[in-house]
């Protein structure tokens, strides 16, 4: 009897040990599953900043789009959908006055309500000349008095935006604008909390510790210099039930070989491909290819503060613009769906409101590859500036693709333009953005992805004295056409379209302000488990609905 009891006790103890072991294994599995559910994606450069007022580049706006939200957010199909706005606005004065109601459940990540005053404060800050906001001109000729304020002729308090109460925002427009709802999805029009910003002083938005969010995610583990950071679900977000990812980990990867190593070892769930890697992986089940609305070009510094450069000579600029074999570039170096672009406005996205003809087809090729003509313009330009040759620095970022591109362009330019020496200046992506904004370059590899599906988003950048210009280009007729498309012509779609066509011709055909290169494509590998990675042809990527199935 005693022996039987001892045996029973031993069996019970053994059972408990086995049960504990099984539970321990299950706990490990649950932990591993939880950790593996983190979504891992790449970025090609560090985040320069996350202040919606001062942001001036695509990487910053991509981050801003995950942690902030405006009155509207683009839906999965790229259409503006209600976000901070509870309903479509009440219209008055023929659509020139809009009354928005802010969601009652809209909160900042620190628990304070998002109010109409947050929008009023942010918008007035954007147009204040003291802010030097690169995209303050987004409001020019659209929001009432924005043009005069940006010029310094009126006080920012006179901007046509006013909080009528905590949840009621009144917006006054110069004219009803067909693209206004699209503009409201962009970072320039996002709200900011004045009390929090003032409490942070100069530290605001310099790290994730000095930042609050009203969007789907909070930015964490970022100090302004990090090559990794996290987007963590914002549990104060009004639509958190539709935010599937608890954590998205971002890693800066500048080399395609490194990206592939990380992808094949399951440390990245999506990577970008280019060149030889596209043909190598084009039959892989994870392979995808699409086109984008990104216009890529070389910027040429004509001078600033009254000091002109050799690139102020239009024939020199024409020569440079016509001396690069763009077809070879997209075929050999990119191979990712990119297409030669001989204008500034990309193809397949924007269409004539009457004839539905594509903008790019309508305006044709404005600056094409023609080495014979390039050499003639080069010789004329050198004669006009009294020189026998030039040495020009070409600034670009430090990704493997950008290095290959600049070396290709260096070879093309020096081969086709006798007497030209091109010195490549490789800097970090962040430093490249700084060089652009400060106009501290001679030639610079850059581009623009657009904020909304209208030619204006590309042409608005080159208005005289626009904080987004940075080339020294200035043309009164160009300004009149572009500003007219934003204001006085906004109610006449066909005349507005014609003005935009003419403006692009002035920018490139007449003045060769840029060296247009290509319309960006996108070839990538993406794990089957990763769902709803939303990347639009136009506009910042949207991670709100992203998820990862670990089954």
From TrEMBL:
Its main location: other. It is found in: Cell envelope. Residues 1-20 form the signal peptide. CDD domains: PBP2_OppA. It comes from the Bacteria. Residues 84-468 form the Solute-binding protein family domain. Keywords: Signal, Transport. Belongs to the bacterial solute-binding protein 5 family. PANTHER family: PERIPLASMIC BINDING COMPONENT OF ABC TRANSPORTER, PERIPLASMIC OLIGOPEPTIDE-BINDING PROTEIN-RELATED. This is Peptide ABC transporter substrate-binding protein. The lineage of its organism: Bacteria, Bacillati, Bacillota, Bacilli, Bacillales.
């Amino acid at each position: 009897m005693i022996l039987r009891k001892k045996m029973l006790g031993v069996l019970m103890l053994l059972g408990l040990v086995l049960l504990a072991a099984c539970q321990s294994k299950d706990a490990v599995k649950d932990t591993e599953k939880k950790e593996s559910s983190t979504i891992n994606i790449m970025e090609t450069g560090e985040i320069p900043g996350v202040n919606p007022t001062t942001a001036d580049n695509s990487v910053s706006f991509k981050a801003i789009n995950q942690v902030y939200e405006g009155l509207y957010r683009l839906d999965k199909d790229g259409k503006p959908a209600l976000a901070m706005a509870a309903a479509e606005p009440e219209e008055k004065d023929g659509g020139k006055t809009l009354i928005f109601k802010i969601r009652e459940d809209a909160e900042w990540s620190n628990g304070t309500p998002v109010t109409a005053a947050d929008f009023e404060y942010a918008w007035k800050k954007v147009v204040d000349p003291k802010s030097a906001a690169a995209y303050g001109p987004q409001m020019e000729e659209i929001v009432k008095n924005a043009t005069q304020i940006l010029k310094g002729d009126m006080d920012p308090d006179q901007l046509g935006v006013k909080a009528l109460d905590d949840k009621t925002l009144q917006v006054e427009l110069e004219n009803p604008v067909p693209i206004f709802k699209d503009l409201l999805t962009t970072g320039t029009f996002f709200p900011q909390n004045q009390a929090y910003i003032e409490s942070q002083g100069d530290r605001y938005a310099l790290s994730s510790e000095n930042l609050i969010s009203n969007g789907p995610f909070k930015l964490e583990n970022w100090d302004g210099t990090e090559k990794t950071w996290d987007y963590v679900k914002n549990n104060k977000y009004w639509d958190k039930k539709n935010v599937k990812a608890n954590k998205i980990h971002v890693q800066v990867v500048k080399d395609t070989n490194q990206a592939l190593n990380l992808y094949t070892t399951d440390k990245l769930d999506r990577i970008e491909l280019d060149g030889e890697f596209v043909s190598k992986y084009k039959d892989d089940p994870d392979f995808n290819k699409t086109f984008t609305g990104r216009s890529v070009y070389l910027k040429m510094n004509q001078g600033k503060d009254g000091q002109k450069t050799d690139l102020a000579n239009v024939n020199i600029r024409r020569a440079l613009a016509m001396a690069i074999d763009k077809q070879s570039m997209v075929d050999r170096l990119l191979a990712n769906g990119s297409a030669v672009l001989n204008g500034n406005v990309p193809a397949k996205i924007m269409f004539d409101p009457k004839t539905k003809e594509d903008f790019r087809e309508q305006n044709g090729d404005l600056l094409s590859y023609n080495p014979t003509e390039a050499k003639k313009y080069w010789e004329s330009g050198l004669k006009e500036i009294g020189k026998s040759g030039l040495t020009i620095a070409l600034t670009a970022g430090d990704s493997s693709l950008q290095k290959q591109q600049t070396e290709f362009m260096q070879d093309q330019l020096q081969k086709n333009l006798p007497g030209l020496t091109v010195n490549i200046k490789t800097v970090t992506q962040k430093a490249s953005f700084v060089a652009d904004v400060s106009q501290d370059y001679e030639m610079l590899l850059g581009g623009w992805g657009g904020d909304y599906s209208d030619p204006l988003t590309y042409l608005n950048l080159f208005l005289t004295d626009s904080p987004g210009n940075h080339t020294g280009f200035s043309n009164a007729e160009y300004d009149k056409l572009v500003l007219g498309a934003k204001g006085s012509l906004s109610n006449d779609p066909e005349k507005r379209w014609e003005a935009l066509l003419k403006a692009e011709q002035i920018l490139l055909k007449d003045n060769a302000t840029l060296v247009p290169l290509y319309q960006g494509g996108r070839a990538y590998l993406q794990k089957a488990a990763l769902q709803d990675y939303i990347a639009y042809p136009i506009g910042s990527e949207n991670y709100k609905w992203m998820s990862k199935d670990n089954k």
